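Today's session is about reading a structure prediction critically. Students often jump straight to the picture, but the first step is always the sequence itself: look for stretches that repeat, for charged clusters, for runs of hydrophobic residues. Only then move on to the predicted structure, which in these notes is written as discrete structure tokens rather than atom positions. Here is the chain we will use throughout the hour.
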Amino acid sequence: MTSPNYEAMTTKQLRTYVLQHRDDQNAINALANRVEANGIKLDSPEQLPNVIRRPQSHQE
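Below is the predicted structure for this chain, in token form.
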């Protein structure tokens, strides 16, 4: 099975993918990197679920 291209996904698509594939650590890491690149500082991995649940308008 091939891994999805996380870089080609929009943030919304990646967020949706992570919510549907919570065991895909590579996708979670890609989303965390993207969140931080968009200026949202994560002090710990435990903060990511809260960021994922935010309305999309707060992340882009």
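Discussion point for the tutorial: Residues 25-37 form the longest helix (13 residues).
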